[in-house]
Write a structure and sequence with these properties.
- The structure is a homotetramer of 162-residue chains.
- Chain A has 162 residues and is an alpha/beta fold.
- Helix content of chain A is 27%, strand content 32%.
- Chain A contains 4 helices and 10 strands, in the order E-E-E-H-E-H-E-H-E-H-E-E-E-E.
- In chain A, the strands form 3 sheets. Chain A has a 6-stranded mixed sheet with strand order 4-1-5-6-7-8, sandwiched between helices. The first copy, chain A, has a two-stranded antiparallel sheet with strand order 2-3. In chain A, strands 9-10 form a two-stranded antiparallel ribbon.
- Chain A starts with a strand and ends with a strand.
- At the A-C interface, loops of A face loops of C.
Chain lengths: 162, 162, 162, 162
């Protein structure tokens, strides 16, 4: 089984610029994370953007949708900023019916020792192998369908609407 | 959904004793790992032993089996040393037919920065929610059924027999 | 020998706010760092402010100076943001002649796995014990006197003026 | 100022072998540690052995002594296992009178997230620049002369004899 892994940026991949004191994107940490997890899945990895999800536009979401549609693989994991992950999931969920797509991200940059990123990546790569077709969000060790999820920004966790 | 989490020791939970220079067990790191993963699953956690899997006896495996059988939860994750994980999975797999049980572990102690433990824990907790009844091993980002798995000790990875 | 340790904030102590995605100050990491370093020096630790050094005012520097002057200890380490560390060192250096004062900081927050903070703290606490009276900056494994140092912001390192 | 850095092994450089579950030596971590510390000292680094200090022989200590004697640099840091660090310091201290030599090590392997190695390395590289000729041990943020130090193995710290 081959899994397509699409990188779109998000907190996952932010690093600290020691010259400016700002957080920014450089390269994805996904390869290092997969090595750490001793991951032996057959993966096809593609970085399609490096965006802060608060700044993602409709056309960015179109690009993500196109990438899912044209992927030959039936199973797709997308790393994504948490702030608008439900919005992107909704764009995908309304269209994609014949693939299993799981979005995940991190509350803390992977480059920080205390990141949830490795846990979430392990989770998303597992759910995507086991779940039926549909679009999902894997966060906090849980799985949500695209049409029943929101990020609770007060406490920084994902939860079902109903 | 409630998941039962059984701790049996293994590399996962080894720490370095700075007085003797030896690796040993103290407490489980599972609570810290779940906190790091911002895990919000409803979990019932029980430490049933703290054993090096190379030293596990038949009666240890009986204890693990009893704990699975008497658990009220239908979904169970077991942290276990990697060396004899397939043996324990076989003991469980021959008996348990009405629950989903996923064993996982780590190649490197969690207390080491470079551990695969957090990735594997995220993986096991996800597979256990999504898979049908049966006994499985979740390692290397992959899932194996109890009757078709071995640890390849030359290269330190899990693989299917056939 | 007792060393006075004054905390003023800086990158050292920044943490990532997972609700806002911003870096901010919470508590100092100095106690955790000293524990990690198995430090057995007799230390008197006081947090006098938690400031980004770019936002430090003249009156902040007066507060730091007063704290150095009134300290009973002859040896003082100050953790400080790197951006204006030379400015603060100059304020102290012109006045303090009968104590050994060493400023240090970090290019990367300690909470990031890749921080130079622990190395710099070990360095500053050692120089302060061994150097004659004066005001110094300990960064990059080197020691600079307050009147011959600048931060090269292009490459993010400290260097002597002459 | 150039500092000679001699690597002899010790806990500092132990890594975890995931195939055997044993700790062993591979390469030194010193280069990675110096990079992390953004160290800009002029260093000449040489690995002269990779030994567990409990297994060091008289002839090993002769090799270390020869390396100190023939080094052109007046300032030398030696990374060394903690268990017999005072013994090696004594061998050096009785002979070397015209150089500053500082031994240091770690209670926890650097590859573990919780190592004191980076703190100790920062400390040793600083003391060596500031102290007069003599042979010293830098551990626990403190400095000891070779003829007044022991490792208290009950609590895992270095202390003065008198």
């Amino acid at each position: 089984m081959t899994v397509r892994l699409l990188i779109t940026g998000g907190t996952f991949d932010k690093v600290y610029d020691e010259l400016t004191g700002k957080l920014y994107f450089r390269d994805t940490h996904i390869h290092e994370m997969l090595r750490l997890g001793r991951c032996r899945l057959d993966l096809k990895i593609r970085t399609i953007m490096m965006a802060d999800s608060l700044e993602m536009t409709d056309s960015d979401r179109e690009v993500i949708l196109r990438n899912c549609e044209k992927a030959e693989e039936e199973r797709i994991v997308i790393t994504h900023g948490t702030d608008t992950m439900p919005e992107t999931a909704a764009v995908l969920g309304k269209v994609i019916k014949d693939k299993t797509v799981v979005l995940t991200g991190a509350m803390i940059p992977y480059a920080f020792g205390s990141s949830d990123g490795l846990f979430n990546l392990g989770s998303a790569l597992s759910f995507v192998q086991a779940l039926p077709h549909g679009v999902y969000i894997a966060m906090n060790g849980r799985i949500f369908t695209w049409d029943n999820v929101r990020k609770n920004r007060q406490i920084g966790v994902f939860e079902a609407l109903t």
